[in-house]
Description:
CATH architecture of the largest domain: 3-Layer(aba) Sandwich
Strand content: 15-25%
Helix content: 40-55%
Bound molecules: pyridoxal-5'-phosphate
CATH superfamily of the largest domain: Type I PLP-dependent aspartate aminotransferase-like (Major domain)
CATH class of the largest domain: Alpha Beta
Structural class: alpha/beta
CATH topology of the largest domain: Aspartate Aminotransferase, domain 2
Number of strands: 15
Amino acid sequence: MTILAPxxxxxxxxxxxxxxxxxxxxxxxxxxxxxxxxxxxxxxxDSGERFLDxxxxxxxxxxxxxxxxxxxxxxxxxRRLGYYHFYRHTTNEPGVDLAEALLRIAPVPxxxxxxxxxxxxxxxxxxxxxxxxxxxxxKPEKRKIIGRRMGYHGSTSASISASGKSDMHADxxxxxxxxxxxxxxxxxxxxxxxxxxxxxxxxxxxxxEALILAEGPETCAAFIGEPVMGAGGGLTPPRSYWEKMQxxxxxxxxLFIADEVIxxxxxxxxxxxSQTYDLQPDMISCAKALSAGMQPISALLVNNRVFxxxxxxxxxxGNFAHGFTYAGHPVTTAVAMETLRIYEEMDMIGHVQRVxxxxxxxxxxxxxxxxxxxxxxxxxLTGMELVADKATRAAFDPARKVGPTVDRHARANGLxxxxxGDRIAFSPPLIITEAEVDDMAARLGRALxxxxxxxxxx
Length: 458
Ligand SMILES: Cc1ncc(COP(=O)(O)O)c(C=O)c1O
């Protein structure tokens, strides 16, 4: 057990804070890592140790960890108008600028934008609008929301219900009734002997259709999915997957919500994951890189079909009775707008299209490593799966804690990665250079070798 000085940040943290996604009991003795500052894609802890952050925090620090330019925009906006709301016919220019910009760059024609503070709230709003839409068109029984096992859409009650993370449902009494989960497209782990990606994709679409038929199509309202599954392990869809899934969604007249919270703003090598995979969603949720992670803001884009129904409800009920205090916040929207300008000026998409393939190529070499069974990705997002036996794809016994061991070695080598079970997800800040990709790979190589040495020694 580490002895902490009573007035240290760590000791004060233990006494005062509850951390998300943390073992609260372990935290009492282990305490937190204190991150003090950032520079480009590197962060520094309180001892001055430097770490390359291959996770961009939580997939969001697209421009790295400090920005004079965004700081100035926030400062100026706070001096002019540091807060006002969007309620009851009130607006402000930064919010309108950002809404227009999002509609301009949307991957498919979209009609309007709703603002929130987080990805969870954007998806929560999308789910409410699915119900509202079907009520408006006279099909109030069409309410079931279908997500995917291992899908992740946020932590609010509805968005975690749509998510397929059983560990995040346990003992919260969730998911709510009416939230269903179909198979998820983890081709490497779940393909059958000799099955092609196309055949696997057909099997996934058939499973979705079977679920809809079993539940009754007249009750199935919407499908929600991430173009690339992030918190499910950095899983890129197999060939023809989205084409086949969308055909089923359309066949049963369900709305399609594309959760672009991770994929939006360049991560997959296009502005949107929906462009990379040719998606035609009715609603798009986005957050994270929208403000380079520097302000808590999310947006939900809705198409005309959805907006027309919202209009009808407003005429009927006299009000659109939904909203958040910080929706359209002038500071968060101003910072997000400036972030989009920066992306355009630096040709962020072009940068990802150049560096992304390099990162994929460098990480693909780790498929040769004795611990690694699968490496696949797109743009600047890669999933790497650790296996006990490459030939049979057998997973490590969780009791061996191979993931945490790699994580320990990675940190000892100044590398932050994101572990999801036996998969490592790589999603560095989008500004990463080829030289920094090499740095990341060198640190990863040492971490994997260190882990392999430890496994063999035991
Ligand atoms: C795809 C996806 N959707 C939604 C969310 C939830 O976003 P937030 O944590 O901002 O509520 C996340 C968070 O990682 C995510 O990865």
